[in-house]
Design a protein that fits this description.
Layout lengths: L1 H20 L1 E3 L9 E2 L4 H9 L2 H19 L8 H17 L4 H7 L6 H23 L11 H38 L1
Helix pairs in contact: 1-2, 1-3, 2-3, 2-5, 2-7, 3-4, 4-6, 5-6, 6-7
């Protein structure tokens, strides 16, 4: 148990550091979002190495740190909008990363299951941001532009590269991660 907690804390710290220092492209996104150098990978690895419980705890902790380090206030001041932004753009969006172990198991715990499960959870994160964009941030859509297309495009500008980067890094590390998972068992 101590080893799991320690490893999870180190991986969480690594994700936080990567999210702060490794912005690949300076953020032109006024309402949030950035492209990092695989900052979600350590959280996904915790979920893969241990179990759903540790993955969800670690990803929830990561969501809280993301809130504290870069919260973007919604364009309205009502409590519901604030709550939806916290849930959709942070708690759920980063929380889904902890589901990696679930998809890894469903895919048969094969080496190729590692990058595929990473792609699935980062796509789920993108979907959370799309919902947030439709429900809250759509007020920034250009006149005549649908709120859905605005959200797909805005969030896609940083999430599609994040999905690709995360999947590629997980594919490159899949052999090492697979060996580490087998040692844990």
């Amino acid at each position: 148990m101590t080893k799991k907690l320690t490893t999870s804390a180190i991986m969480l710290a690594l994700s936080v550091v990567l999210s702060f220092i490794s912005k690949i492209i300076p953020a032109p996104w006024l309402q949030g979002g950035s492209i990092t150098l695989a900052s979600m990978v350590p959280i996904i690895v915790v979920s893969l190495m241990y179990d759903l419980k540790f993955g969800l705890i670690c990803s929830f902790a990561y969501s809280l740190i993301q809130i504290m380090s870069g919260f973007y206030h919604p364009p309205t001041q009502d409590f519901l909008s604030f709550t939806l932004v916290v849930l959709l753009d942070y708690v759920f969006a980063f929380g889904v990363l902890g589901l990696s172990s679930l998809f890894y198991k469903l895919l048969g715990k094969k080496i190729y299951s590692i990058p595929i499960s990473g792609a699935i959870v980062t796509i789920l994160r993108y979907i959370c941001h799309i919902f947030s964009g439709v429900l809250i941030w759509g007020v920034y859509a250009k006149e005549g532009q649908s709120v859905l297309s605005y959200s797909l495009i805005y969030n896609g500008t940083y999430m599609v590269p994040e999905i690709i980067i995360t999947t590629v890094v997980l594919a490159l590390l899949a052999g090492f991660i697979q060996k580490t998972i087998k040692k844990q068992a």
